[in-house]
Amino acid sequence: MLSPNVETFLMCNTLYDEADIVLFGAPYDSTTSFRPGTRFGPHAIRSESFGLESYSPYQNKDLEDCNILDIGDLELRFGSPEYALEQIENHTKQILNDNKLPFLLGGEHLVTLGSFRAVAKKYPDVHIIHFDAHADLRDDYLGEPLSHACVIRRCWDIIGDNRIYQFGIRSGERAEWQWSKEHVTTNRFNLDGLDDVVNMLSGKPIYFTLDLDILDPSVFCGTGTPEPGGISFDELRKAVTLVCSKLNIVGCDVNELSPHYDSSGASTAVACKIVREMLLALNK
Question: What is the pTM of this model?
Answer without folding.
Answer: 0.97
